[in-house]
Amino acid sequence: MRGSLSSRLLVLIVSFVMLAEVLIFVPSVANFRLNWLEQRIAAAQIASLALEAPPDNTVSPALREELLENAQVYAVALNRADARRLVLSDDMPPMVDASFDLRDTMSMRPIMDAFDTILAGDGRIVLVTDEPPFGAGESIEIVFDETPLRHAMIRYGKNVFLLSFVISIITAGLVYVALHFLLVRPMRRLKANMIAFRENPEDARRVMEPSAREDEIGVAEHELSLMQRQIRSTLSQKARLAALGAAVSKINHDLRNILAGAQLLSDRIGAIDDPTVQHLAPRLFSSIDRAIDLCTQSLKFGGASEPTPAREMIALRPLVEEAMDMAFPATDLFRRINDVPEGLLIDADADQLFRVLLNLARNAAQALVEKTGEGAGFLHISAQRLGGHVHIDISDNGPGLPPKAREHLFEPFSGGTRTDSTGLGLAISAEIVQTHGGHIELLSTGAEGTRFRICIPDRNARERECPGALDGLRAAQ
Questions:
Q1: From the centroid of its chain, how far is CA 333?
Q2: Alpha carbons 200 and 220: distance in angstroms, whole number
Q3: pLDDT in tens, 368-379
Q4: Cα gap 51→193, rounded to integer Å
Q5: DSSP states of 166-220 as a string?
Q6: 3-state DSSP call for residue 357?
Q7: How many CA atoms lie within 13 A of 52 on its CB side?
Q8: 89-121: buried (b, 16+ CB within 10 Å) or exposed (e) per residue?
Q9: Phi and psi, residue 344, nearest 5°
């Protein structure tokens, strides 16, 4: 019973059907008693009509005994105009033990009288009063032995009980079979599938195959299958991330050593007395230093999360210019538009914000190459301060993002726009911006290009939440 839904279901169905039969059984027994008494009263009145034929309303003792025996009563009395007349009676009628009035219309009275008759025992003499079925008076009373009625009620009750029991078993069996195929078997299938999937969720064969049902069970199967596929995808992604983390740690270790050697060479290059070299050397040194710091952080934190930003008020325009130089070289083919106002300060970690700008600028450059080839593409970066927040807009005239990339834009290994892309750039950028208390969002994308907005609040901003993109745009206008 505890471990089987089928057994519980069968017992409950039998119990409920039996309860329904009991609710029918009790009124039916009471109704049987009333019908029996009405037939006995009708027979008694018919017997009393034989007395109306003789002029003196008397019959021989032998005929009287025969009439009483056929009517199965001891006495019959009629009430007319407030006068009670004993129409037919035995020589020595027995004493009455109980009396019943069938004219009592209380709803529970017939049921109570029926139980009283069954529990009374044999040999009880009763007086029953009712309206004469054939007229001839206001009421008729009969006195008879209740034993035949009691035995008839018991036989009727047994038959009704047996019939009810058989009906309940058949009904319960049919309902059980129907529910077994409609509910129990599909639920067992769901249970077995969940247990098997829990034991080895990486096995694709254990993913639920939904049936063609369209009811709640079918919806549950479909949702379970979808959830299992998502879990498998997440586990696969976690495994790839773990493998990637191990590989990145190894690569970062060797790359840091290589960059350290490159740093020594860059120091020697910086000593060359050439205007072009002197102009580019500081940026080369800065890029190598950032690369070494990034490798060190990756080895230190294992790529699990971004470190807490070391925030300070920095000039945004030079940082944007440097990110453009690294990801988007200025040529006759592509234009760079740095529209950040001079002197605009942002409260951020310079290195981390540089990574965000570099990722977005590289994505724009790759999109422009795919769309325009050698056409006139451009990257436009603008910024503005709105109270305690700074909005940075990055836009291009590339081909826009495909629908698949928009659905998983900031998810690693899911938001890439190219077949060889991992989608890590936007995921890393979103995480860095979130550690600053801000957010990054896609404002628009399409055949005319793509536009992102970064919102970063100051540490002492009154409102920690950045205003919405449309709110910020209206404020700027």
A1: 55
A2: 21
A3: 877 655 557 888
A4: 86
A5: HHHHHHHHHHHHHHIIIIIHHHHHHHHHHHHHHH-TT-GGGS----S--SHHHHH
A6: helix
A7: 7
A8: eeeeeeeeeeebebeeeeeeebbebbeebeeee
A9: -70, 120
When mean pLDDT is compared over 26-30, 303-307, 311-315, 401-405, the highest value belongs to: 311-315
β-bridge mates for residue 444, sequence order:
451
Domain spans, the chain: 5-170, 227-304, 305-476
CB atoms within 10 A of CB 146: 22
Q: Which residues of 297-321 are buried (b: 16+ CB within 10 A; e: fewer)?
A: bbeeeebeebeebebeebebbebbb
Lowest mean pLDDT among 124-133, 179-188, 290-299: 290-299
**C-alpha separations of 186 from 67, 181, 208, 222 in Å:** 70, 7, 12, 12
Cβ atoms 388, 462 nearer than 8 A: yes
Helix (H) or strand (E) holding 68: helix 61-71
- Work out the number of other CB atoms within 10 angstroms of the CB of residue 440: 23
pTM here is 0.44
CB atoms under 10 Å from CB of 218, counted, come to 14
Highest mean pLDDT range out of 18-27, 266-275, 420-429? 18-27
Residue 123: both structure tokens together: 């040999």
Q: What stretch of H or E contains 348?
A: strand 345-348
Q: Look at domain 305-476 and name its CATH class.
A: alpha beta
* C-alpha–C-alpha distance, residues 331 and 396, integer Å: 16
Distances (CA, A) of 158 to 85, 110, 152, 376: 40, 19, 10, 99
> Are residues 398 and 363 in contact, defined by beta-carbon separation less than 8 angstroms?
no
Distance CA 445, CA 440 (A): 14
Distance CA 237, CA 239 (A): 5
For residue 314, the cross-strand partners are 346
Which amino acid would we find at residue 419? T
Sign for the CA dihedral angle at 302, 306, 308, 311 comes to: positive
Q: Which residue type sits at 203? A: D
Domain 227-304 grouped into CATH 1.10.287: yes
Residue 66: other Cβ atoms inside 10 A:
14
Each residue of 75-94: pLDDT tens digit? 888 887 666 777 777 777 78
Tokens 């106002």, residue located: 341
Q: Outline where 331-374 has alpha helix (H).
A: 350-372
Q: Do 376 and 335 form a contact (C-beta atoms < 8 A)?
A: yes
* Side-by-side strand order, sheet with 83-89: 83-89, 75-80, 139-145, 125-130, 98-101
